[in-house]
Design brief:
Elements lengths: L1 H18 L12 H5 L5 H10 L9 H4 L27 H7 L19
This protein binds heme C (HEC) (3 copies).
One heme C (HEC) binds next to α2 and α5.
Length: 117
């Protein structure tokens, strides 16, 4: 428990610091091939919410994870979008369910391009 609280605090500070930037920090190239090999990961994210280890307020996300569509595990709510935008409907907390090392700024570079840390 103490460990989780510590991670939440670190995460909060780091997110606040990067949030001072005008834009969402750029992501490094991401492999769908690697991740889709894991199958539908929605239940993995749902389990983290249920256990209370999900690092962000889940809002109405939990009910939307009862899906068989593997894309919706990460691209939240894109099935209800009736337009297009550059947003890919992602939440960083999803990634941290598996990539759970929070040690800023080094750990941030696993996903974010260096210029953003
Ligand atoms: C593990 C999480 C995850 C899953 C599952 C996932 N995506 Fe993605 N998707 C991402 C990330 C991360 C990006 C990159 C966003 C960025 O670079 O800003 C992305 C980007 C995209 C893009 C933008 C174009 C591109 O290729 O860069 C499309 C289209 C896309 N995803 C479609 C899909 C489809 C279709 C599925 C299901 C077959 C899927 N995604 C499943 C995380 C995921
Ligand atoms: C269900 C668990 C899971 C989730 C959720 C997840 N990943 Fe991964 N990710 C993996 C596994 C397994 C690998 C392959 C082994 C490794 O390199 O750690 C991987 C590898 C990676 C890598 C290393 C390069 C590669 O593709 O092999 C990056 C970068 C990455 N993930 C980014 C992300 C991002 C960004 C998200 C959120 C949009 C995300 N991951 C969500 C399990 C996950
Ligand atoms: C495992 C992958 C991963 C790691 C590690 C990671 N991020 Fe992210 N981050 C993401 C993804 C995916 C997004 C969403 C990007 C989008 O919406 O296009 C994001 C978005 C953000 C945002 C924009 C606001 C938000 O929450 O969506 C900030 C700020 C941020 N990250 C800071 C950090 C910091 C600071 C660290 C290191 C403590 C970090 N990130 C580590 C994947 C990661």
């Amino acid at each position: 428990m103490a460990h989780l609280v510590q991670r939440l605090i670190l995460f909060g500070i780091a997110a606040w610091a990067l949030g001072q930037q005008a834009e969402i920090p750029k992501l490094k190239p991401f492999s769908h091939k690697t991740h889709l090999k894991l199958g539908n990961i929605a239940p993995v994210i749902a389990a983290a919410i249920d256990k209370g280890t999900y690092l962000s307020p889940p809002g109405d996300l939990r009910s939307r994870l009862n899906t068989n569509n593997p894309c919706l595990a990460c691209h939240h709510g894109i099935d209800n979008s009736d337009g297009t935008s550059k947003s890919t409907f992602l939440a960083m907390a999803d990634c941290l369910v598996c990539h759970n090392k929070v040690d800023p700024p080094i750990s941030c570079g696993f996903c974010h391009a260096r210029s953003s840390t």
